[in-house]
Every structure is written in structure tokens, then in C-alpha cells.
Amino acid sequence: MDQYKGMVMKETIGALRRPMSADWSDHGVITDPSQLSTNKQETTEGCIPYLLDGDTQTFFQSTWSEDNSNGEIHYLQVDMRAALQFIKLKYEQTHQQNQWEPKTVRVCATNNLTEGWSEICTASFDARTGSTEVDLGEPYRYLRLYVSDTFSGQLVRNNKCFAWSEFGVWNNAEVSAENLAEVEDIMADVELSNGYSETVLRALERVEQKLAESRVLRLPDNGFNYVYTTLLPGNYDEVVYSRHFSNTHWQSIVLPFDVYYYDICHDRVVARLNDIHQYDDDDDGTPDRTILEVFRLKEYDVLSANTPYLIRATDTGIKDFVMTTSFEPMIPLPLDCSSVGMQYDFCGTYQTVLGRDMFENHYYAMDSGCLSEAAGPGVELKPFRWYMRAVDRTGNIPARIPTIQVIEYDDEGYITSIESYGDNAETDVSTPVYDMNGRQVGVMGKWNELPKGVFIANGKKLLK
Question: pLDDT value at position 7?
């Protein structure tokens, strides 16, 4: 048994040190089908070894041909052969078009299969093929993914069945240079040893521990409901939230720690929410447009923890937000502003807000630089963002408010910056264009039809 344990541990240590491959030449710490199991294997197709065969034309399939009489949620279970805290999952869609790949899963973990499972977080996968990161909060050996929803959302004989073509798990700990040097020394001694004595086994266990440690807590922007809801766990030197900016429009943001604006202002613009105004342009007693007024932060300002802001990047790509003060309890601070007849509530979230909830509750979210009410149940709101809800004084949802335009002011009350149309070449052609009195006079796609003058689009003054 000692010899077998040592062989497995040494093999696992090798897998722990490998970065995620660009192809399916390996599957990280999963090196054998025996490390995977499920409670709902489909009997007519899709066995577990197909998840590891490197062939994207084969696939694993959970039960669809038999009735799910006990109503069990389908899961995939993983023995990582090492206690890991930081992991990266990689998955490949099937060649079929049924879209049964997992979209939302409950992540559970344990170190002892006889002692039950701890629920860690809820994960939302952005696409049928991709990769995502998970911080389990502390090291665990066994992982179980309960599939709550799939991209098709279909039930077959009461089965929420799911499928993947390939699946892998990688160690995602950011190992320090000191730990890595110690690992190299221990491994050199192990290579010189004969057999697997107790001393060698303990050395291999120390290697495993060193490779699983990390001093950086990363908060990926992918829909995980993190267990860190009150205090920052110990033994971290740094906390980092990463967001991928796919456009340069205004977006919402809320962070669980303070950030100095000076540290990010070179490639990001941040504005605080100030007020909402409604205008009745034709004097018929019904508001014709609604404006969200924001003020740009100064270099010496601080993005306060748990507070809703607007942010836009000057270019696309992944931007990091590094904790520079202290980690705050992850309890977003709701904001509200009121007029004589209306109240607007801004609520931050560190969890995914399901599209169904966005639609049924008439929540507004940022879309293409404006606030828009959810038009259907198909689009979720990712974590580290905020949504807005409008109600009248009686608490009723008013008739649909048109898109709420964001207007940026400086401290003197004027809209900041005058730019030429050429500076806004990436602006969507459907973006509304307003005159200086706030009346919509066209869209960016018909810019050439407008007369000479100064106009407003996306909260900026544009000169023609």
C-alpha cells in the first residue's frame, strides 16, 4: 500500500506542476477514468472514459433514457488525488447540437467520502466550451459538480441530463518562488531514493502541500458565489478581481475592497452615481426621457468597498483591481435616490442574478452604455455589478421607462470633454444623439444627417 500510495502521489505531483494545455493532450490532475464517477450514467451512450480520450467527437452523457423516479440531481464527481484549494476547470462541448452542456452547477467538496460534502459555491459557465477558475476556500481532495441547469434547460423523463466531450482539472495555485525552490530540493532527494519509505512519502506530501499553496486570492468574473462573505481568509498577501472589458461603454461595478483611483485611472474612467432626472419635453404630463447623472472621480479619490459605480475602459481586455486597503465584508451597499413621484434603488451583487429574476422583477442593468430594463429572461447579470429598480411612491412598477441615458458632469455642473465624431468610431450606430437641451435628434449611424453643432452621445459632447 505504501508503494502504491507513493507511486500515485508522485504521478499526481507531476500533474500538479503542469500548466493547462492548449489542446487535450492531457487533462491536468485527472490521469485515469477511475478518478471520475457519476450517479446518473446513461446506459445507451457516452461513458466516462470518453471525457479523457482527447477525441472531441466522443462524449460523456448522463441519463436520459430512464425515468428519474427519485428526482436526483445529476453530478460528476472527481478524485483529484491531492488536496487542492485553487483549481481551474476546462471543458469541451459535444459535437451534437442538443446543448446539454452544464450552464449552472453547485460545487461541493470533501476530504473524506464517509463524512459528507460541503457546499462551496454556485458556478455559472459562460459558454459550452471554455475554462473557469474555482477557489474552494480550503484544500479538498474530492470534488462534486451538481448540474442545476444546462444550456438547453431541457428535462427528459425528469432528468436534467448533461454532456461534455472532454473535461480536465488543473492546479491553479500561484506558487511562490520560495515554495517552488523548496519543491525542487525535495523532489531531487526523492529521485535519489530507492523505494517509497515513510520518509519519502512524507517528503512527497510536503511537495503536494507546497504546490497547492497560494498567497493571492483571485476573484474571477465568472459567476461564483464565493464563500468569503464576511471576512478575508488568512494567509493571503493580495486580493485581485479581474474583469474582461469587451467594449469601452459604461459598465456597472461594485468591489468588496477599496481601490485607489490613481492606480487605475490610466486605462479606466470611474464615475459615482449622483441623481436621476426625468424630463417632459412635450408638456403632456408624461416623462419623455430619463437621465442618470454621474460625476467622474478625481485621481485622489477612492473606490469604496461595496458601493455601486460606473466604469468604462479606454481599451478592451482584462483589467485587474488589486486590494490596496482592507477587505470588507462582501455585503453590497444599496443606494437610492428619489423624486416627488419615483424611487430608484441601486443594488450591488457578488453573485449571478438569473435572467428570470432580472425580467420578473423589472430590473435595469447597463447595456451598451445605457441603463435598460431586462427585456426577457435569457440574459443573466454577472457578479461584481449592480442593477436598478424603479418604483412609484406606492411601490408599484411604473409603465416601462425608456432607456436611461448616462450623462457625465464635472464638479462645475458641465458635461465633461468635447470630442469629434472620429474619436467615437467604435460607438454603436444605434446610440442616441441628443442636442444640448437633452432632446434626441438622431442616432450615431446617421451622424452625417445632423447639422453642424455640439451634440451629446454616451455622456460625451461631440463636435460636428
Answer: 66
Instruction: Provide the pLDDT for residue 440.
Output: 82
Q: Give 227-237 pLDDT, tens digit per residue.
A: 554 455 566 77
Q: Sheet of 418-420: strands edge to edge? A: 418-420, 460-463, 454-457, 432-434, 440-443
* β-sheet bridge partners, residue 322: 240
Closest CA to 215 of 236, 233, 245: 236
Contacts of 114 (CB under 8 A, 6+ apart): none
By C-alpha distance, which of 38, 46, 162, 26 is closest to 90? Answer: 26
Q: List 342's β-bridge partners, or say none.
A: 392
The full DSSP string for 311-349 is: EEESS-EEEEEE--S-BPPS----EEEE-SSEEEEEEEE
Cell of 78: 472527481
Query: What tens digit of pLDDT does each residue of 284-330 get?
Result: 777 778 889 999 999 999 999 889 999 999 999 889 998 876 767 67
Bridge partners, residue 168, by sequence: 90
- Name the helix (H) or strand (E) containing 204: helix 198-212
Rounded Cα distance, 344 and 362, in Å: 12
With residue 276 as reference, give the H or E element that holds it: strand 268-279
The ranges assigned to domains in the chain are 2-171, 238-406, 417-463
Nearest to 156 by CA among 60, 97, 68, 70: 68
432-434 and 440-443 strand pairing? antiparallel
Q: Which residues contact 256 (CB under 8 A, 6 or more apart)?
A: 219, 228, 239, 241, 305, 306, 327, 328, 329, 330, 350
Closest CA to 177 of 210, 130, 206, 222: 210
Instruction: Please give the CATH architecture assigned to the domain spanning 2-171.
Output: Sandwich (2.60)
Residues sharing a CB contact under 8 Å with residue 9, sequence separation 6 or more, in sequence order: 81, 82, 201, 204, 205, 208
- pLDDT tens column, 326-370: 767 677 788 888 887 888 999 998 888 888 899 999 999 999 888
The C-alpha cell at 193 is: 531514493
pTM of this prediction exceeds 0.70? no
Tell me what pLDDT residue 434 has.
83
CA dihedral defined by 69, 70, 76, 77, rounded to 10 degrees? -140
**Strand pairing category for 460-463 and 418-420:** parallel
Q: Which amino acid is at 374?
A: A
Q: What per-residue confidence (pLDDT) applies to 385?
A: 94
Note the pLDDT tens digit of each residue in 365-402: 999 888 999 988 888 898 899 999 998 877 788 777 77
Is pLDDT of 270 > 80?
yes
